[in-house]
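re: ur question from earlier - yeah i can do the single chain one, its not a big deal. heres the input i used so u can compare w yours
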Amino acid sequence: MLLGIAGMVGSGKSTLARALASRFGLQLALESVDAENPWLARFYDGGEESMRRWGLHLQLHFLATRFESMRRIRARGGSWVLDRTWYEDAEIFARGLYEQGLLSTSEWELYSGLYGELLHSPAARPPTLLLYLHAPLETIVGRIASRGRPSEQEAGVAYWRALHGRYERWIRDFRRCPVLALDVREYDLLGDPRAVDALAERVRMHLEPNLPQTDLWPARHAAQPAPGAGSLTI
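and the output i got, formated as tokens:
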């Protein structure tokens, strides 16, 4: 079983992934910063000219490393909760570069063709359930501001507005697996201990009709994932 968590920067994907991993004894796959990405600095260091020059390289690197990580997750087996999906890499972020003119039409066709082929691989089997975290733009921007990460502060509201719009369009047309939409304003995982139980119950209600009982077993008093559970940075 694989639970995917999708949503804007600042929506709390990692916090929810950790909470559900602990609550259900799932293995945890957190998104990495990808510090070893050789294209990231080249993409950002020279303005729009560098973005156009290195945009395809950057997105192909993300695509390759994401699917490598998913292949390792599938090979390890068991049940997982995934912080950000491979769909977002391609259908929101890479597409966003194309819409901004930072990928040419031929580059986008090459990238999207490869992505479409990779979707047929065993690693890309759809999640059992996608948890989509959403909120109005002003809520997301406020959360991003409170995080204090310099790279996020420099992006500006216009960037987040465009990204927010792409996420909303993407989820409206998403049909690859069942979706449970969660308004992040309705719970506080850090401030309210009861919030984890309430969210876990909602997840369980969506999953139980289609899963053997042992695939989602509540660890009601566990502070860490159940024995045998693991974690992976992707």
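The longest helix spans residues 47-76. not sure if urs matches, ping me
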